User: Fold UDP-glucose 6-dehydrogenase from Chlamydomonas eustigma.
Amino acid sequence: MKIACIGAGYVGGPTMAMIALKCPHIEVVVLDINEERINAWNSDTLPIYEPGLLEVVQAARGRNLFFSTDTSKHISEADIVFVSVNTPTKTSGIGAGKAADLTYWEGAARMIASNSKSSKIIVEKSTVPVKTAEAIGKVLSRNCSDPSVQFEILSNPEFLAEGTAIQDLMKPDRVLIGGSDTPSGRAAIKALKEVYENWIPSERVLTCNLWSAELAKLTANAFLAQRISSINAISALCEETGADVQQVAHAIGTDSRIGNKFLNASVGFGGSCFQKDILNLCYVCETVGLKEVAEYWYQVVSMNDHQKNRFVERVIGSMFNSVKNKKVAIFGFAFKKDTGDTRETPAIDVCKGLIQDGAICAIYDPEVSPEMIFRDMSTPKFEWDKPNYTKSASRFLENVLIGSSAEDAVKGAHAICVLTEWDRFKDYDYKAMYEQMSKPAFVFDGRNILDHDKLREIGFIVYALGKPLDPFLQKVY
Ligand code: NAD
Ligand code: UDX
Assistant:
């Protein structure tokens, strides 16, 4: 059997590497139009940072795992074609700022149609709006010149999270396969199920109809993000009442109906999926006339924006209502730990908010390059996915410094803002950092990972998200 995957990104690369590792009898080729990305996959400096990924790639690459830009050859030879291209939020036209931009998906479908001389199973790996399979089916059937070629479309959404992709792929809670309830649909589901059953117990491979699989993916992300917005909403109330959000989260999380995962209050959720997929869900609801349902889910995104704004206001308010010309050390720019990904990271909005008030942000992240930070800080909302983007002059860039280390970022700073929960941030010598900072020195822990009592003993004024407020933090009006 031969598998091709269109899209060698955060999903296509790791998922195909895992299939190749676990199925040595299957040839897996990952394809991309981005030559630089493919070259990186063929090197030992992979294009994405993901713990354990290099080892998996090295075990299979050259054996039955290949990365290539030769799309026509490998699509033509494949029995199963996964499509794992980006499906960002539309930035212009109808549905701008909400609907999914399916340009890349349509491009991939046209590429499959024009390069197919034999029937194939087409697997939607990208997250797409409900009913995409129907639309893509039309693009495929109308663009293939050989009428004997049949395409069977399956929806097989990916549930991995960045930073834990390898363990998520190795032992997923479930794999979901949606397909048509026809003889050829059932045969396609069986063929894909057999691939996964090489390492995943069959009871964990769930099957359903196409539309349920497509909608389940949007729903899963909406539910996960909703938990974060819910606990973040409570974090604001905790600060006003003297309750401690971690104690509240623990108390509710021990109720088995609620569960204890995904209850960490934070400066806001980021990443390429949550916001995009909820907006997409809202757009689908609006399109079918379900205005109230759309409004309900939209609140999850609004609360997330509120949490980022609230954090910025807290920093500025605590620092005597002005951060003009004050250096603020930013610890962490990635949207979560153990990834270098900055797509929709809350750090962008927080840094922009602080800079708008005149702060100089000295940013340090162990996995994010200065080039990426400059690009993010000068890119308008939703525009991060534009491939032809060129760095433009932005007023934000004048106030951005890149710290070569955390120690470098804190020199002369008035405050430290922890925006990503990197483990290494817990182990720094904060006493030595305190000596290097302007006084009073503040710590704003947007991830609640530091030892706040110890920081207070050193002399810091500490804001811990969702926790009783340090008296010194009261706003100056
Ligand atoms: P990505 O941007 O990292 O990768 C997509 C790749 O597709 C890019 O390298 C791009 O060059 C390539 N591409 C686009 N059009 C192409 C074409 N016609 N031919 C060949 N290559 C093409 O995106 P990603 O983060 O891997 O996400 C892919 C999909 O998976 C999205 O729909 C996303 O919502 C979904 N998803 C992402 C995650 C995640 O954690 N990132 C998790 C689950 C699902
Ligand atoms: C998410 C889903 O978890 C995954 O199943 C889906 O396939 C893709 O989208 P990802 O965005 O990679 O994965 O990371 P995730 O761990 O979900 O974190 C998303 C954001 O929420 C991060 O910014 C993270 O810091 C934040 N978060 C997560 C919290 O603020 N609190 C939490 O308790 C959990």
About this structure: The radius of gyration is 24 Å.
